[in-house]
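Consider the tokenized backbone below.
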């Protein structure tokens, strides 16, 4: 067999092996992701009768006493939590990280759900649902990109900032510019809006 033909066959075999290896790796990752989380049932927006929220004192910032969340803000807060995945491998983090806020949901069917937010750093929302440790399952996107770096936010902290501004808006009866900025930032982080470019 000519050397050129042997070379072509060798490259074809190598390409096939690589394709099988890459395919197997992708399948393994997909399977592991699908089994890493058990999805926790959270109510749909139209099933929620009332939502209240509290922000705890942290980093020298004052807390926010329990306040009602107006209907127009319920959807973005819920989207920041869905889908809620119960971690199958690391469920003890609520004993390590500090709680920073709480949301209580009352459904039209009479169900009450208590969600506690935790400061776990610059990652997707970390919280408990009635005591069960959960993460928002899905990509954690940068809110801005530049040649030097990609900027990410701590989603749990950002949710608390949004609650803080909602409360302030209610108390002052004035529109909060920060609230609009924080909501846009959260939408970028969960992938609903593209990142800003620096």
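A designed sequence for it:
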């Amino acid at each position: 067999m000519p050397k050129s033909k042997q070379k072509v066959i060798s490259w074809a075999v190598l390409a096939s092996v690589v394709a099988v290896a890459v395919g197997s790796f992708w399948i393994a990752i997909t399977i592991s992701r699908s089994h890493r989380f058990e999805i926790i049932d959270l109510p749909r927006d139209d099933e929620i009768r009332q939502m209240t929220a509290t922000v705890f004192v942290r980093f020298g910032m004052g807390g926010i006493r329990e306040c009602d969340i107006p209907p127009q803000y319920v959807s973005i807060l819920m989207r920041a939590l869905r889908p809620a995945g119960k971690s199958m491998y690391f469920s003890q983090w609520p004993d390590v990280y500090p709680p920073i806020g709480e949301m209580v949901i009352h459904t039209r069917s009479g169900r009450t759900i208590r969600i506690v937010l935790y400061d776990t750093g610059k990652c997707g929302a970390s919280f408990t649902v009635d005591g069960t440790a959960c993460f928002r399952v899905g990509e954690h996107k940068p809110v801005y990109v530049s040649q030097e770096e990609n900027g990410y936010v701590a989603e749990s902290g950002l949710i608390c900032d949004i609650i803080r501004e909602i409360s302030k808006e209610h108390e002052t009866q004035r529109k909060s510019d920060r609230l609009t900025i924080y909501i846009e930032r959260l939408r970028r982080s969960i992938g609903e809006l593209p990142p800003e470019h620096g």
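The radius of gyration is 22 Å.
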